[in-house]
Amino acid sequence: MWGERITTYDRKWKRVNISELLKKLQLKKYWILARHSRGEPAPAKAWGGNPEHDIMDKQFYVYILASKRNGTLYIAVTSDLIQRIWQHKNKMAKGFAQKYNVNKLVYYEVHLNAESAITKEKQMKKWQRAWKLQLIEEKNPDWKDLYDDIRL
């Protein structure tokens, strides 16, 4: 069949068969459904009709977690904010955030592509602490945990 010969390249410039890629995406969709049935949050785009369309519509988020008001800050990027914050809150994400108990979502912003989100994350990580605190204070003066708002 002619569709089996169509190829593309992945992030590492490795040649990938489109049919195989779509099969993997379909398997990932079932994996997400299984996780959701165990009580874990499912991504917003988990059951779109066309897997290629879901990839094209993906949003990226730069977010800041805090341990408490004016406490330890953690800045990162994700394509599934609800699931990622759930992982932080349930100590599923190993590393800095778990070690310092940083699990309160105090700020996030949406980007339409990964490149702009990663660029913004790198910029914010270079900011002075005072600038980060000012950004949080402007958008979330009470340092409310925004996770409850976004998961509804």
Topology:
Layout lengths: L6 E3 L5 E3 H20 L13 H6 L3 E7 L6 E6 L2 H9 L6 H4 L4 E8 L2 H13 L2 H11 L7 H4 L2
Antiparallel strand pairs: 1-2, 3-4, 3-5
Question: Could you walk me through the main structural features you see in this protein, from its secondary elements to its overall organization?
Answer:
With 152 residues, this protein is of the alpha+beta class. The protein has helices at residues 18-37, 51-56, 81-89, 96-99, 114-126, 129-139, 147-150, and strands at 7-9, 15-17, 60-66, 73-78, 104-111. It has two domains: 2-56, no CATH class; 60-150, 3-Layer(aba) Sandwich (GIY-YIG endonuclease). The chain is built from seven helices and five strands; from the N terminus they run ββααββααβααα. The strands form two sheets. The protein has a three-stranded antiparallel beta sheet, sandwiched between helices. A hairpin with a 5-residue loop joins strand 1 and strand 2. The chain is globular and about 45 Å long. The model is unreliable at 1-7, 29-34 and 42-55 (pLDDT under 50).
Keywords:
single chain, 152 residues, alpha+beta, GIY-YIG endonuclease, 2 domains, three-stranded antiparallel sheet, two-stranded antiparallel ribbon, globular
